[in-house]
Amino acid sequence: MGVIPSPAVGFPAPEPGLAAALLRGAGDVAGLFAVARRLRDEGKGRVVTYSPKVFCPLTTLCRDRCAYCTFAAPPGAGGRYLEPEEALDLARRGAALACTEALLTLGDRPEDRWPAAREFLDRHGCASTPDYVALIARAVVEEAGLFPHANPGVLDEVEVAALRPWCASMGLMLENISPRLMEPGMPHHGCPDKDPARRMAALRAMAAQRVPLTTGVLVGIGETPEELADSLFALAGLAAETGAVQEVIVQNFRAKAGTPMSRAAEPTPQYLARVAAVARWVLGAEMNLQVPPNLTDRFEVYLDAGVNDWGGVSPLTPDWVNPEAPWPHLGELRARTEAAGFRLRTRLPVYPGFLGPEWCDPELLPRLRAAADDGGYALTSPPGDAVS
Ligand code: SF4
């Protein structure tokens, strides 16, 4: 494991046993929140960011079977690829609303399970789903002027390198470091792409190709506080070792009708806030820490736990992973963030600290710089967002 960032004065250094205890609500929880806020203020000031995006569900076919998922579906039950024109239409409509990010989200390796997926890829001259992602990402950049942030699943380094010229950043949630969650009866049983060792290897492949990375934990899928603490320390280690992690998401599980976990308890906002505060303490002042604002009614509670980002928010498209949870209107997001004492800024899918030649392909860097102000934030904001 790499070097863990130094602790704030007056609070113990991050350590997995103490992190698990704090997650359980034991110990100096009030002190933890104070440290989380102080670290955020030291590293990020009073600026909170979001990325105006369109959500592009590139394929809802998947070879995995996560017990909480409604995004993936079989062929004939809604599972399909977006045709290139459909993806481009979304991107163009997003561009017309001053969105800068095209979130390309997809199921993992559907061609390994579904003949219909293989036929689609053959028809479009693609050897694999990552090939199709590259095809669409390039068109999104060249024809719509948006910057793809791809959630491409588990890739190797060659596949990452092929995507890098057209994907400004990439994301892969670790979700949890525990292989126990793949055992029979657990949410990742039958999901080869949820093997935490494979996911860590894929994150390292992205980092090795100098791609700005988004990753994170999914909270409430049957993990123990110890497993959640270990996951946060694994991400802190990855960040310290590679320098490639630009943001970490703390995301809450939502129980969805029609899934094996439809009756599972969801984490409370109080617990998720505690997770966010522990994440800030473990990850340090400089990390961008995000909680999605559409999965909790009173999302401001996470500002008290040290977060500094709301992630991608769309004025156009639903959250296809949580379609029951609309994003807040951008004007409301601004008003509520500012009422809590912060300045809301729009950002690109690449954070300001990663906007340079080490992290951005020469194809994309001039376009990204042209879309950014002197501080590296997005030059424009969607019309629904009153102040830039
Ligand atoms: S890998 Fe993703 S898309 Fe596939 S079943 Fe799991 S959560 Fe759904």
Describe the structure.
By secondary structure, the protein is α/β, with parallel strands linked by helices. The protein has one domain: Alpha-Beta Barrel (TIM Barrel), CATH 3.20.20.70. 34% of the residues lie in helices and 14% in strands. It has eleven helices and nine strands. Strands 1, 2, 3, 4, 5, 6, 7, 8 and 9 form a nine-stranded parallel beta sheet that branches. Helix 7 links the parallel strand 4 and strand 5. The longest helix has 18 residues. The N terminus is likely disordered. Bound molecules: iron/sulfur cluster (SF4).
* Approximate shape: globular
At the first level of CATH, the class is Alpha Beta
Total number of helical segments?
11
**Overall number of structural domains:** 1
Task: Provide the low-confidence segments as ranges.
Answer: 1-8
Order of helices and strands: HHEHEHHEHEHEHEHEEHEH
Give me the CATH architecture, please.
Answer: Alpha-Beta Barrel
Helix content: 25-40%
Bound molecules: iron/sulfur cluster
Report how far the terminal alpha carbons are from each other.
40 Å
CATH fold name: TIM Barrel
Strand segment count: 9
- Average pLDDT: 94
Q: What is the C-alpha radius of gyration, as a whole number of Å? A: 20 Å
Largest sheet: 9 strands, parallel
Supply the CATH superfamily name.
Aldolase class I
Structural class: alpha/beta
Q: How much of the residues is beta strand, in percent?
A: 5-15%
